[in-house]
Amino acid sequence: RSYAELDKEGARVDKWFRDNRIDYDVQLNDAFYAKSGFDRGHMARREDAEWGRSLALAKLSADLTCSYANAAPQVPALNRARFGAKGKWGLLETELLEKGIENEPGKAGRMCVFAGPLFDDDNDPVFKGVQIALDFFKVVVWYDGDGELRTTCYRLSQEKLVGQIEFEMLRFDEVFKTYQVPIDKIERATGLKFHPNIADRDTSSGDEDVIA
Description:
The protein is α+β, with helices and mostly antiparallel strands. Helix content is 25%, strand content 18%. A three-stranded antiparallel sheet has the order 3-6-7, with helices on both faces. The chain has a two-stranded antiparallel sheet with strand order 1-2. Strand 4 (126-127) and strand 5 (130-131) form a beta hairpin.
């Protein structure tokens, strides 16, 4: 049995820690999140790391995602997509990274995901002396059913949490269409520069009205 199967049965226990490769002064901790109302929002999901040659290695990989260096403060209405919650960040992850794997077997089931907060010094609020990012990005790279490399990018906001998204059939280029942004906008906002093999296969139409 896989660790992921055991995890879903209630074996999951998140034990958060600070990464000793990074200065502790720039990492949050339990004291920050206590009674804050914020979730510790995984940037790289625990579920996506739950694999390895043994159950022990799969568990270790999953546990290592619970680093404060891999989390950002997110309100539950954005972050959570379990137990009836419909957080848009969590739902986007589930739709792309779980249903996508199920619907794209073999080579097409392999995905690379880049994700993180988008800071805005002019608009982001400060909580306990910490700047809270209101927006987040995901860049998803995958092989489609024809074996072609594709790229799609998303920007989600926790500034205004209204409405719900209903999912039907999976099409990577249509999921969260109102949140899809061109990759060059992600590059400008983050300072990242993606390889041409990724950037040239962006599926965005170029629309930039992404905040609901």
